[in-house]
Amino acid sequence: MKSASFFTRFSKRISKAVGHPAAFAVALAIVAVWGISGPFAGWSDTWQLVINTGTTIVTFLMVFLIQNTQNRDTAAIQVKLDELIRAIEGAHNALLDLEELDERELEHIRTQYEALAQRAREELTERARNGIPDAPVSDDNQKN
């Protein structure tokens, strides 16, 4: 496998570090020290500007790092799901790469699967009314 770029390695490390409880404790300690220092700074505008500027900069930078990590994770999950669809006999290979469809096409497919799920729930309800245990659905019914 190709080695990850510097930014990828950096964003992974930072995302993992800031997701750790110790990072929360450090952030909480910084806010506490800032709050406690208020009376000593006379609650000045500069005192307020320090925390506002600091948190704005950290938030701005973290958005990009977290988004990079999220994009990479999402892409990896999509590839894994695509492989499962491809490998399962009877699965619809047309469902591969659905994330590339436009909103209208995706909604159309989602509606079809919602209808399929509704029919399956109705069938289970009917079976329960007739006293039939929740047996696996026959191959003929799965194709609907």
Features:
144 residues; 5 helices; mainly alpha
What would you call the shape? elongated
Contiguous runs where pLDDT drops below 50 for at least 5 residues: none
Terminus-to-terminus distance: 42 Å
What is the tally of helical segments? 5
Question: What's the number of structural domains?
Answer: 2
Mean pLDDT over the full residue set: 89
- Fraction of residues in β-strands: under 5%
- Briefly note the structural class of the backbone: mainly alpha
Query: How would you characterize the largest beta sheet?
Result: none
Give the proportion of residues in helices. over 70%
Count of extended strands: 0
Oligomer: single chain
User: Cα-atom Rg, whole angstroms?
Assistant: 26 Å
| Helix-strand topology string | HHHHH
